[in-house]
Putative gluconeogenesis factor (Weissella koreensis), 339 residues
Amino acid sequence: MSTKIEQSIANNNGKVVVIGGGTGQSVLLNGLRAYPLDLTAIITVADDGGSSGTLRDYLRMVPPGDIRNVMATLSNASNDFLHLFQYRFKSDAGFLANHTIGNLMIAALAQENQDISAAIKILSQMMDVQGHVYPVVNDPLTLCATFTDGTTISGEAEITHAHKKIERIWVEDVDGSEPKSEPEVINAILGADVIVLGPGSLYTSILPNISIPNVASALRITPARIIYISNIMTQKGETDDFSDSDHLRVLNKHIGANVIDTVIMNSGLVPEDYIDWQRWDEISHQVKSDPEEVRKQGAVPIMGNLIELRDEGVFHDAQKIAELLYTIIKDPGTGKDSL
């Protein structure tokens, strides 16, 4: 790394904002934390399933699960502490069934301080979290979808289980008012050098964030380079037969302009005989690569073999993605079709 680049990063020019949710966001951040970057995670709060959904309903708080995973990923706490933080009670544990210690800690601090942001700040200090962690809003949201057949469903779990083609996604506050992100979220977007969308479920991890009006507005005016990491596999009932440019089109449509500058696309081939289709029944087929269609939407396609094969499934390789992103951050002119 050159002296110029080191000085640039030392002067806080390596500000990277990762917007998303689910396991993909944590995987990416785990790769990026190996580099000298100022990381910020903006996390969806529309999850309504599992332990997060239960705490959300009982305590009227944002679902803590994705927040917990990101904090654990960025923490410098001991492995023993992190193991306890991530411990999930077994399904036969009565009222504690399937809850994680970390979710309960976040819930307790949020209730004690009457503010989820304060809870995250306190816990971040306790866990020596290297970066900034923000829920996209401080109140739980309801995810809503209109399908191509004209029907409408509310609730992330219900939308996912419907397995129907989605026309549009939006979020609603529990009291019916328009959701609004806090100033620190908007300031992070406006002050970033690079903003990363994904990887993760298009309709349930990424769009719930960018569908918030002031977040979409900030994305339209930020000087940051906006990068989308396209999914490797389509999601059954949601993105069947989607190409990379189809994902991009939906994102730009919900943001309200063609603002995405770069699309990172996988060029590796997924071996059909490797995937356990029963175990990973939410995936369908490999996403089609169509770089020319991506260019037509004003984005630069950057391709590479980004596949990690494990557990009879297909995932993004965190190290490869992080290395590629860091190359882009070091050299903003990066735009080759194959790296």
User: Anything to note?
Assistant: The mean pLDDT is 88. Residues 153 and 278 are 26 Å apart (CA to CA).
